[in-house]
From TrEMBL:
The keyword Transcription applies. InterPro entries: HTH_LacI (IPR000843), LacI/GalR-like_sensor (IPR046335), Lambda_DNA-bd_dom_sf (IPR010982), Peripla_BP_I (IPR028082). PANTHER family: HTH-TYPE TRANSCRIPTIONAL REGULATOR GALS (PTHR30146:SF109), LACI-RELATED TRANSCRIPTIONAL REPRESSOR (PTHR30146). It comes from Plantactinospora soyae. Transmembrane segments: none annotated. It comes from the Bacteria. This is DNA-binding LacI/PurR family transcriptional regulator. SMART domains: HTH_LACI.
Length: 347
């Protein structure tokens, strides 16, 4: 009969505890993601885990804790957009950073078809993951409600438009000040003397799209200017939709002299359409985007844009999800992050 002995080179939990200066029971609670440990002790134990290269027996832990030690980040977009747009990469980086000092493993998925959605609904249970983070949600998406019904810890990246009303179902989410950021962008364009300020608004079945359009309207109203609906066109946050929307705006209002686009990619598309039409940026038309992504620096001309802290947003999503999984007390289910305008040559 073969003897099952521990590999003498493989560190034990007792060695981790000794390195961290705590008891084995305390080290076990940290490794098993218990909330009954101080942040200082938790940090010391995970530092010892990394130093020694300790690898927990995941199968045994699952039997004891009834947890999978896995969480999902689900993007409701095609793989092409999920990997091609800076926003999603920034969220993933932030989430990874937020999970770095936990035993949780991250798996990434995107939904790009009804069949893929159905498959995802079957996978997102407590038998497969301990919690879920959802981003790029549209109003028709049933996934948040389904996960809440299952009692699975869930955090939303941004609020769907259907959650903006007074009767909205409470949920854990992290969002940025979309309204304030858009208002600041349009106020700036008005302050530098632009008179016909258009907007390429985002999709109106997404909270970010709705709120950035609200901010545009608020900035005009604060100056006593009525909203001209001919100066509003809509896109889906992609560059190609920015091109098409800008062409529509030029056809309706050829004398416009500024445009606020609700995403950097739509702003880049708008700049392309303006260049194609022989308009100079910013001399003829000033352009402001939203996100302050790396693309803004390399635009021609470099893009003035509303900065949203995307990496921080991902990190806060992870923190909020981990707190739910641990059963920690959470003062508020909603986290709002500030935005600010970064001025460059396009405006």
């Amino acid at each position: 009969m073969r003897s099952h002995r521990r590999d003498p080179g493989r560190p034990t939990l007792s060695e981790v505890a000794a390195r961290a200066g705590v008891g084995r029971g305390t080290a076990s609670r940290v490794v098993n993601n218990s909330s009954q440990v101080s942040p200082t002790v938790r940090a010391a134990v995970w530092a010892a885990v990394r130093e020694l290269g300790y690898v927990p027996n995941r199968a045994a832990r699952t039997l004891v804790t009834q947890r999978t030690d896995s969480v999902a980040l689900v993007i409701s977009e095609s793989g092409e957009r999920a990997f091609g747009e800076p926003f999603f990469a920034g969220i993933a980086r932030g989430v990874s950073a937020g999970l770095a000092d936990t035993p949780l493993q991250l798996w990434l998925s995107w939904i790009q078809s009804p069949g893929g959605r159905e498959k995802m609904e079957h996978q997102l249970t407590d038998q497969h993951v301990d919690g879920v983070m959802l981003i790029s949600l549209h109003d028709a998406d049933p996934l948040p409600g389904l996960l809440m019904e299952r009692g699975l810890p869930t955090v939303l990246g941004g609020r769907p438009a259907q959650m903006l009303g007074p009767d909205a179902q409470p949920a854990y989410f992290v969002d940025v000040d979309n309204t304030g950021g858009a208002r600041q962008a349009v106020e700036y364009l008005l302050s530098i003397g632009r008179r016909a300020v258009a907007t390429v608004a985002g999709p109106q079945d997404m909270g970010a799209g709705v709120n950035r359009l609200v901010g545009y309207r608020q900035a005009l109203a604060a100056r006593g200017r009525p909203t001209n609906e001919n100066l509003i066109a809509y896109g889906d946050f992609s560059a190609s939709s920015g091109v098409e929307a800008m062409r529509q705006l030029l056809a309706r209002c050829p004398d416009l002299d500024a445009v606020f686009a609700a995403s950097d990619l739509m702003a880049l598309g708008a700049i392309k359409a303006l260049h194609d039409a022989g308009r100079r940026v910013p001399e003829d038309v000033a352009v402001v985007g939203y996100e302050d992504s790396s693309l803004a620096l390399h635009a021609n001309p470099p893009l003035t844009s509303v900065h949203q802290p995307v990496i921080t947003m991902g990190r806060e999503m992870a923190r909020l999800l981990v707190a739910q999984i641990r059963g920690d007390e959470i003062p508020s289910p909603a986290i709002f992050l500030d935005t600010h305008l970064v001025r460059r040559q396009s405006a």
